[in-house]
Amino acid sequence: MASHRALAFIPLTLLSAGLCFSADATSASSVKAKPGMMTGRITTTAGKPLAGAVVNVFGFTKAGEQVRITARTGADGIYAVNLPPGGLYGVSNAFAPLKTALGVVDHRLHPLERNFEVPVSNAGGITRNFELRLSGLKAVESNVSRDPREPTNYYGQLIRAHLRGGSSSMDFQGTMLEFKLTPVGSLADGTKGKTLIFRRSAKHLNTDTGLGFDLDQTQVLPDVPLGAYKATATVKKPGGTPQNILLSRDGNTPGPSITVEFRPSPSVSGTQVFNLYAHLDDAGTSGSPAPKAPPVAQAPKTSAELIRGHVNSPFAYPGNVLLVLEDYAVTPEDAVVEVVFTSLDGGRDEVVRRTLRQIRAGNMLDDSRPLAETGYIPLLTPGAYRVSAVIVSAHGAGRKVELRPSDGTAGREVQLRWMPGERYRESGGKVVYVTINPDR
Fold first, then answer.
1. Spatial separation of the C-alpha atoms in residues 375 and 276, rounded to whole Å
2. Which range, 40-44, 208-212, 327-331, is most confident?
3. Consecutive H or E run containing 30
4. Residues 6+ apart with CB under 8 A from 107
5. Which range has the top average pLDDT, 122-126, 163-167, 209-213, 295-299?
6. What is the rounded CA–CA span in Å between residue 285 and residue 280?
7. What is the pLDDT of residues 357-409, one digit of tens each?
8. Structural domains in the chain?
């Protein structure tokens, strides 16, 4: 069967490498396809058009001939192709060529319409819009699940942490490592990145990845937005204080920090896994000592035992918070809410992001779902906090977020407080109701 190649294109802009980000923020919903055409707009999460993004169209003509077309967006972020009438067409994939220090990375784009890959008739025109997301769970395709425990199901990049050193008598379960990734320059989409912190036990770093494990119990540090980072780490043994440890890229030349950069994959879209080595035998030799965490009032000596157990059970953590979506008007479920816990008693501040869909999932009490994909937020150092929240995604931007503790009054900013006697009880959880107001 001959392949249909003589197809007309709407004029497009072709770029040899990398993307251009325009200041125009026209809504993707304003792009409408004419009969016989497939079109759409590709933007960043902030709504800025992407020039040079690639959309691969496939399908069959009315006569049964196979069609495959590669379209690219122009300066306005729009792609458009004319297709033979009476056929069935869909999108096999779409990606953005993001320029990094180590080369151009073909980054997969997030579809804004469901079943984008299912061929449909072009009689009335086909609109397929996409968005550049550097992190978050990938879109669900027809008949394909997106298990949140699988690290490759996220738009972010992967780091695999390996251990070097450590005696056979070490308490691998109780020894905790904290990896800190500080952005160096802008992310690959030109936005400002945020510092990322990952915590793993030494035992978890010796665990192979797989569907039988949760991501926070593996060697993998998942969903890292594409960019460059300065990586540092500390280790805390049971009963001890955090100590700086040395890191390396190859396991042989450790230093107090390393630069994490993601190399484009030579065979598939995306990047190669970055391998990071933590040298336990060099704990405390990387220069200045790690900052000490402030003591928690009336903390029992055996408090570490209270946070052990099933990692997906919020009741295994003292001081957990459950976000309950009380009212969100017509806000899309993909809207991302950033909740900021500012310590009022010298403890660590916490910043947590959840989509509205994840918050709703947390209300189902499903212990098979990773806590990071639910409305549960485990606070390992319960105390007194000032809590506020904002929507940080283009979806739902400008809407007000109001919080209401179960034992308090509603407001844009509320307080949560664990009394000394309840801080280390497994039942010492707090419920905060979240309301998204449509007012801008």
1. 31
2. 40-44
3. none
4. 95, 96, 97, 98, 132, 134, 155, 188, 226, 269, 270
5. 122-126
6. 10
7. 777 655 544 445 566 667 777 665 667 889 999 888 776 677 788 898 887 88
8. 3-132 (2.60.40), 151-282 (2.60.40), 303-437 (no CATH)
Q: What is the largest CA-CA distance in the chain?
A: 77
Does position 437 have pLDDT exceeding 50, yes or no? yes
In sequence order, what DSSP letters do the residues of 126-155 get, joined into one string? EE--EEE-SSSBPPPBTTB---TT-GGGBS
Q: What is the pTM of this model?
A: 0.61
Q: To which residue do tokens 């606070």 refer?
A: 379
**Cα(35)–Cα(86) distance, rounded to whole angstroms?**
10
State in Å, rounded, how far the first CA of the chain is from the last one.
56
Confidence of residue 341 (pLDDT cuts 50, 70, 90): confident
With a pLDDT cut of 70, the percent of the chain lying above it is 70
Residue 349's alpha-carbon distances to 169, 231, 234, in angstroms, are 34, 20, 18
Residues in the chain: 440
CB atoms within 10 A of CB 361: 18
Give dist(CA 178, CA 199) in Å, integer: 5
Half-sphere exposure of 341 (CA within 13 A, CB side): 25
- The residue type found at 4 is H
Enumerate residues 6+ apart whose C-beta is below 8 A from 252: none
Check: CB of residue 366 under 8 Å from CB of residue 374: yes
The answer to which of 68-82, 121-135, 276-290 has the lowest mean pLDDT is: 276-290
426 Cβ contact partners less than 8 Å away, ≥ 6 residues apart? 306, 315, 316, 317, 318
Under 8 Å between Cβ of 390 and 397: no
| Rounded Cα–Cα distance for residues 232 and 401 (Å) | 34
Confidence of residue 215 (pLDDT cuts 50, 70, 90): confident
Alpha-helical (H) ranges within 335-422 are 356-362
Contact 314, 379 (CB under 8 A): no
What is the spatial distance between Cα 392 and Cα 317, in angstroms, rounded to a whole number? 27
Share above pLDDT 90 across residues of the chain, in percent, rounded to a whole number: 39
Q: What sign does the dihedral 357-360-362-366 (CA atoms) show?
A: negative
